[in-house]
TrEMBL record:
Record has Kinase as a keyword: no
Keywords for this protein: Membrane, Transmembrane, Transmembrane helix
Pfam families per record: SPW
Designated name of the protein: SPW repeat protein
Organism listed in the record: Paenibacillus chondroitinus
Amino acid sequence: MTMYLKNGLSACMGLWFLVSPWVFGFEAQTNAFFVCVLLGSVQFVGSLLALGKSGKRVWQNWLCLLIGAIFILFPNVFYVELMAYFLFVVLGFLTILINYANLYADEQ
């Protein structure tokens, strides 16, 4: 049950990354826009595909963990305002923690 919750939270964060260019108004920065839309979509879909799965062999959790690391680096590569910077780093770190917890959860 908790794996569903963790993957659901990861999917919600992926959805947030997907819509963040419009929320923070940097949709005119083409590269930043496409990175957010592409990686946010991949995290959303990957998290939904990983629903109820745990263990080191679940590639969807590895993928989402990697995307979380990219989103921590994202505000250092592209210019975003301070609140966006803070949210990208915090939500990227939470994405890593949630997916790490799924990778090393007791397999049932």
